[in-house]
Amino acid sequence: MLDGRELQQAMAIGKQMFVEFEDAVWLRVHLGLYGAWDFAGEIFADATIASANGRMGQTNQRGTDPALSDDVVFDDAGENSLTSIGAPRTSRVHVRMSEQTKGLADDGEEWPPPVVGQVRLRLLTDPTPSPPAAFASVGASGRVGPTCADLRGPTACVLQTTDEMLATAARLGPDPLVGDPAEGEERFVRTVSRKPTPIALLLMDQAVVSGIGNVYRAEMLFRARLEPHTPGRDVPEELIRELWRDWVRLLSIGVETGQMMTMDGLSADEYRAAMASRDDRHWVYHRAGLPCRVCATEIALEEIGARKLYWCPSCQR
């Protein structure tokens, strides 16, 4: 169905990606816990051509704190998106985009790269397209090289008509990066305030709010000092609004840095430590059994909605 069709546009709503091809054929992809896009070739980002030698996605970081702008900051997985996003180089490399933690190594000069494992979908560019004007000086030949994207293990990979795509989008909760954040806030408040469901489950319900995952869920509840089992309808309206506004703030930080950074007021040295280690980026997430950073109470771990929830029984009473 997609063979030979040219990609027209791509957009995301929360964790769902929608890609339009010629003749109004839409591809919907949801990576879920195990899905991943593996990229090979030359990657465009921020109006530059980049050869990506790390993984693009939630765990890359850019080290964008102004006080650290002259430093190259690697995290403990060896990731540094300063060298993988926006660097003006043209070598062929691999990059993986997923919620997992391991990237792919350079596969050499073979093109297109061999299909490895259970590839659900492959998107491949014309190997010798004419470059956009902004890239006319890139490369000795004046041409932009090819890019390949292989999709593995997604929760959803389906083709839709425009009407089906719009219907899917309508079922999703508000996303601060899509539409008016103020309107999104009102939708979020209306929905949460009438639900008897625990707030910890509501924040993970993509029909209530789009994009919040397990890390942000735990961190937002701690930052709000909110007991995670509180029914949505029992949460004060102003606190519901503050949850949404905190999500807007944290998401903007995530977009800017490429990291799920949820701690505030860090010094330059503390920021570097947080960029270098996931263990220093969060208040409670992945800290079960460790002392709370605020009150020293042991961080609790429980399963709720088939996902792990980390929280402080003292701060979040």
How would you portray this structure in words?
It is a single chain. The protein has 2 domains: 32-154, no CATH class; 181-311, Helicase, Ruva Protein, domain 3 (Orthogonal Bundle). 21% of the residues lie in helices and 21% in strands. The protein contains 6 helices and 11 strands. The strands form 3 sheets. Strands 4, 5, 6, 7 and 8 form a 5-stranded antiparallel beta sheet that branches. Strands 1-2-3-9 form a 4-stranded antiparallel beta sheet, with helices on one face. Strands 10-11 form a two-stranded antiparallel sheet. A hairpin with a 2-residue loop joins strand 4 and strand 5 (48-51). It starts with 6 loop residues before the first strand and ends in a 6-residue tail after the last strand.
Key phrases:
single chain, 317 residues, alpha+beta, Helicase, Ruva Protein, domain 3, 2 domains, 5-stranded antiparallel beta sheet, 4-stranded antiparallel beta sheet, 11 strands, 21% helix, 21% strand, multifunctional enzyme, DNA repair, zinc-finger
Write the layout of secondary structure elements.
Elements: E1 7-13, E2 16-21, E3 25-30, E4 36-45, E5 48-51, E6 93-98, E7 119-124, E8 147-152, E9 156-160, H1 162-170, H2 181-193, H3 199-202, H4 214-223, H5 237-257, H6 268-276, E10 300-304, E11 307-311
Antiparallel strand pairs: 1-2, 2-3, 3-9, 4-5, 4-6, 4-8, 7-8, 10-11
Number of separate helices? 6
Poorly predicted sequence stretches spanning 5 or more consecutive residues: 45-93, 99-107, 129-143
CATH class of the largest domain: Mainly Alpha
SSE sequence, one letter per element: EEEEEEEEEHHHHHHEE
Helicity level, as a percent range? Answer: 10-25%
- Intertermini distance: 53 Å
| Quaternary structure annotation | single chain
Q: Hey, roughly how much beta strand do the residues contain? A: 15-25%
> How many beta-strand segments?
11
Biggest β-sheet strands, sense, barrel: 5 strands, antiparallel
- Indicate the CATH architecture of the largest domain: Orthogonal Bundle
Query: How confident is the prediction overall: mean pLDDT?
Result: 79
Pairing-aware structural class of the strands and helices?
Answer: alpha+beta
CATH topology label of the largest domain: Helicase, Ruva Protein, domain 3
Protein name: Formamidopyrimidine-DNA glycosylase
Domain FPG-type: 283-317
Organism: Microbacterium esteraromaticum
Cofactor: Zn(2+)
